[in-house]
Design brief:
Structural class: alpha/beta
Number of helices: 14
Strand content: 5-15%
Order of helices and strands: EHEEEHEHEHEHHEHHEEHHHHEHEEH
Largest sheet: 6 strands, parallel
Mean pLDDT: 95
Number of strands: 13
Low-confidence stretches: none
Strand order of the largest sheet: 5-2-1-6-7-8
């Protein structure tokens, strides 16, 4: 499919049949596409839901869709139509990677489940993404908000005296997409060694259990059920936003050495050797004694003044930016966070590879933009009137 028009990458030559939609799957396939894979995005007649999630929009398209669908080719296939289903079967027979996030078992009725695809193509790496796994939770809808609630994340997010809050993004969708990429790459490596494909399964709840890291470990290893602490950290202090003379500054003293440098830089050398605050555990036990001492001193200068002074002393700290401020910060640090493909600005792939960098060849496709091209390549040319 016009392979000479795209830039080679480490996954060049890998064909991905992408039957996923919304976020976890499309994010995974965009990462694969950035690294050189040829991704064919299969959409139903109405298109991916995120095309219509507005506002905000760019032109007639939701910016949500634009965020996760570059470097792909779009074809519309109605799987209930026998002719379109034949195209889907042929694509599955050729693809190195087949990925979907239908409910468990949902692809079987189209003969696109794992067993069917593996029979057509034993080398296929088949990735299925669900909300709660393919056993007891197979019937549960896989919405990130539900998983944030049911996993325990929301119980940890928000003011201790207020209501639970969701994270500002669909965090487990994104993380499941990342885990799916890891599983796919591992399975491709296995195929390189053995010649055999396999089934990669990921789900949002299992991702949540792993991604809650120290919080789930507090329960499973320590018998402690963590609770909301606002912006405070369960095991570290100071490690939170603290008020200065004109606004908050995040200060993150993660060990004893950083704490000592912090109080020295703040002009509070007596606190460096105060036995009440000598260790991480001491500072946690007495955080309500230490916090007002720090706040009194921080109130004497602005957040920007403290940021400059503490940063110069090697203290991890930073202002609380809005999203524009975050993008501008990344740009000011030379990270080039925005890459424009055609006329569509997107956020650069965060992985830097010295020999085979990410590519940015195709803007997010219009619905069925490459349908005729893909059909012809698969041997199903459309009749012309």
């Amino acid at each position: 499919m016009n392979a000479d028009e795209v830039t080679a990458g480490p996954l060049s030559g890998v064909l991905v049949a992408d039957f996923s939609r919304v976020l976890a799957g499309p994010y995974a396939t965009m990462l694969l596409a950035d690294l050189g894979a040829e991704v064919v995005k299969v959409e139903g007649p109405a298109g991916d839901d995120t095309r219509h999630w507005v506002p905000p929009r760019r032109g007639d398209t939701g910016t949500y869709y634009l965020a996760i669908n570059r470097n792909k080719r779009s074809i519309v296939l109605d799987l209930k139509d026998p002719d379109d289903l034949a195209v889907a079967h042929e694509l599955s027979a050729r693809a190195d990677v087949f990925i979907h996030n239908f409910k468990p078992g949902g692809m079987d009725r189209f003969e696109l489940g794992y067993d069917h695809v593996a029979a057509r193509n034993p080398r296929s790496v088949y990735c299925s993404i669900s909300g709660f796994g393919a056993t007891g939770g197979a019937h549960l809808p896989g919405y990130d908000l539900l998983v944030q609630a049911m996993s325990g994340l929301m119980s940890l997010t928000g003011d201790p005296e207020g209501s639970p809050y969701r994270a500002g993004i669909s965090v487990f969708d994104v993380m499941t997409g990342l885990h799916s990429v890891i599983g796919i790459l591992a399975a491709l490596r296995h195929r390189d060694e053995t010649g055999a494909g396999q089934h990669v399964e990921t789900n949002l709840l299992s991702t949540a259990m792993s991604s809650l890291v120290n919080q789930t470990s507090a329960y499973v290893a320590g018998g402690v059920v963590p609770q909301r602490m606002g912006n405070a950290h369960l095991s570290l202090f100071p490690y939170e936003p603290l008020a200065t003379g004109d606004g908050d500054l995040v200060i993150a003293a993660g060990n004893d050495g950083q704490y000592r440098r912090l109080v020295q830089a703040m002009g509070l050398p007596e606190l460096a050797d105060d036995p009440r605050f000598a260790t991480v555990g001491d500072r946690n036990d007495r955080r309500e004694e230490l916090r007002p001492l720090l706040l009194e001193r921080l109130a004497t200068r602005t957040a920007q003044e403290w940021f400059e002074e503490l940063s110069a002393a090697g203290i991890p700290c930073g202002p609380i930016n809005d999203v524009r401020g975050g993008v501008e910060l990344a740009a000011s640090l030379g990270l080039d966070p925005v890459v424009t493909i055609g006329d569509v600005p997107t956020v650069r792939n965060p992985i830097r590879l010295s020999a085979s960098p990410a590519r940015y060849d195709l803007p997010p496709p219009a619905l069925d933009e490459h349908g005729a091209e893909v059909r012809a390549w698969l041997g199903f040319p459309q009749e012309t009137a």
